[in-house]
Amino acid sequence: MSALRSNDLFPIAVIGIITLIACIVLWQIVDMVLLGGSLAIVLMPLHHRLSARVRPFFSAAIITGGVFLVFAGAAYITLMILTANATTLTSMFASIGTWLNDPKTNPLSYGVPFSKTTLSAVLTEGTDIFVDYEKTLIANLSLILFKMFVFFFSLSALLYHGDLLKKRFMSHMPPVICEWVTRLSAVTADTLYAIYVVQIAIAVLTFFISLPVFWLLGYGNVLFYSFLAAFCELIPVLGSSATFILIGAYAQALGDTRGVFILFIFGYLIVSCVPEIWIRPVLVGRRVKINAVIMFIGIIGGILTMGLAGFVLGPVMIVLLITSFRIYSSERKERKVAADASCVRV
Q1: Total-model pTM
Q2: How many CA atoms lie within 13 A of 298 on its CB side?
Q3: Which of 322, 223, 307, 330 lies closest to 28, judged by CA?
Q4: Tens of pLDDT along 155-176?
Q5: Distance of CA 113 to the CA centre of its chain
Q6: Where are the domains of the chain?
Q7: Greatest distance between any 2 Cα atoms in the chain
Q8: Hey, how many other C-beta atoms are within 10 angstroms of the C-beta on 173?
Q9: DSSP assignment of 127-192, as one string?
């Protein structure tokens, strides 16, 4: 590799600083840009194959339209299922609310380290999402529409202009940077592909392994509760644990100790925690050849610190860091071998 000159480093540093400032200023929509861009990277091979048959503009439009239809269909089905089970949800949240407001059964009386205000806020937020979702959507409609626009614009723009932007970027970079970017781009694409595929696979798995848990619980609505667990699992900042905690609180409000035990042992620990702690890190880590424990730290740490954006950034940054170290170590080893060989010839 050719050495990186100091005058090459300055514009790179300036671009990095400007990018960082832009991310800070536009943090409220950065998650949508990241999700749109990451999905574009995953779908880029499909765009290349489709571009061989039609113009790239139409290829990007077709793929973006297909993603929109999938999202719209999933949202419509979810709203229909929530509407059909509105009575069940309303009764559940009402029972939990009564339980929280009763001084005899309030969790504070059992030494649970949460204030009543915190628990009530969690209940209110859950009610807004699962029961009063129509009011919540209307109240936040402008923000939701704007974020959807940013997401689909990022997806379509990066599909259409992604290759051109990469070529222009690489043409202005010194060879040492180009070689690193090329190698890191490949592992980034693999990581993002694994993240999305594993996310969908675990959501489907959650639905099926939740069925026996809710059947054993005996409250009925087995399909709905399993769907709710899978739906929450599909949303990184929620996870299926939100469903088991919610229904567990409902079981506690009913005084069903057996139900609480079933939901905690078989629901929370097995159905929710095992995929998050073991299956997801193993599958994603195996794709990019990184230890599952390190990948687990990247996934959970990213979500905890950056929310939805961290779902993508956390594991990607871990992969880039470790891959960069591997490349650096490999290059040092190659240079050492070459130097030793030169000494031997001399």
Answers
A1: 0.80
A2: 24
A3: 307
A4: 999 999 888 888 877 776 677 6
A5: 29
A6: 1-173
A7: 88
A8: 17
A9: HHHHTSHHHHHHHTHHHHHHHHHHHHHHHHHHHHHHHHHHHHHHHTS-HHHHHHHHHHHHHHHHHH
